[in-house]
Specification:
Order of helices and strands: HH
Number of helices: 2
Distance between the termini: 14 Å
Strand content: under 5%
Largest sheet: none
Number of strands: 0
Helix content: 55-70%
Shape: elongated
Structural class: mainly alpha
């Protein structure tokens, strides 16, 4: 798998889980033809993005990268298996 840890942070997981719940809520209410419920789900999707961004700003996300990678230039590694 990826050695960069892309998305493996509490901020990313929390934001995605909240947005996924919002997607499920919006999907259920669109099938039920309930407009306010659909928009409540859409608000949850946006809330997931906001919560993930706030958590990242609080230091629970992946550190920003400067240059090519966070650990310096890329090194060649032998391929396994």
């Amino acid at each position: 798998m990826s050695s960069s840890g892309h998305g493996h942070t509490p901020a990313a997981w929390t934001g995605v889980i909240i947005s996924f719940i919002g997607f499920c809520v919006a999907g259920a209410f669109i099938v039920l033809a309930n407009v306010p419920g659909f928009w409540a789900g859409m608000v949850l999707i946006g809330l997931g993005a906001v919560v993930g961004g706030v958590m990242r700003a609080a230091g629970l996300g992946q550190a920003g990268r400067k240059g090519a990678t966070a650990h310096g230039p890329a090194k060649a590694r032998p391929q396994e298996g």
